Every structure is written in structure tokens, then in C-alpha cells.
Amino acid sequence: MAKKKTEIGRAGEAVARKYLEQRGYRVLHINWRYGHYELDIVARRPDLLVVVEVKTRDQRRIMEPEDAVDKAKIRRTVAAADAYVQTFDIDLPVQFDILSLIKCSDGTYHVEHIEDAFYAPVQ
């Protein structure tokens, strides 16, 4: 089960990368890690750094893929983004997006891009 979940996630990240590149994003990193933190995709727009959380499912379930981005996931993603910005000395606003992908029966993906999906929580 874990292997299948990983395969679905990796396939979704490849689709997400292509989706973003076709829309003018420059993908900087995929699966960037810092300690226990990970950013699925880090991309660039001209004046913006975009951190993209990719959620992929192989079929519709009770819960939409983006609903898996809970408060704990948001905190981890924001912490990882902070580490990324410091590591690469980036002086740009950061936007947090979610790409929700559902694999269709014909092998294609339904993609929903939720821009500005969440903000860094106030400490």
C-alpha cells in the first residue's frame, strides 16, 4: 500500500511540474528537503516565490485531495519554506499554492490549482 501511495504521489508531482511549466512557472526544486521538512515543488514567477503542495489521489473519495492539507501540514510547509528562503537568500514574497490532482479512469488527471491556498500562521 505504501509503495502504491508513493508511486501515485510521484506521478502526480510529474503532472504538477508539467502543469506549472506550461503556465509560465520556472520550477526550481522538486521534493526539496531540510531536516524532517519537505517542499513538494518550489517554483518562481517573475516577482514571486511559489511553494506548491501537491496532493494526488487515484480516484475521488469522500475527501478532496486538498482537504489533506491540515494545520499541522501548513505549519511544516511554512517552516520548510522559511528554511528554503534562508538557505538560498531569497528576497521575494512567498505564495503557498495547492495543486489537487485526481487520476481519471483514462489515465489523465483532473487538476485544480488553488492559488494563495493558505498563509503563514501568525506566531
Automatic annotation (TrEMBL):
Signal peptide residues on this chain, from the entry's feature table: none
Domain of life of the source: Bacteria
Molecular function terms from GO: nucleic acid binding
Alphabetical list of PANTHER family matching this protein: UPF0102 PROTEIN YRAN (PTHR34039)
Membership in a protein family: Belongs to the UPF0102 family.
This protein's name: UPF0102 protein T231_05530
Taxonomic source organism: Tannerella sp. oral taxon BU063 isolate Cell 6/7/9
Upper lineage: Bacteria, Pseudomonadati, Bacteroidota, Bacteroidia, Bacteroidales
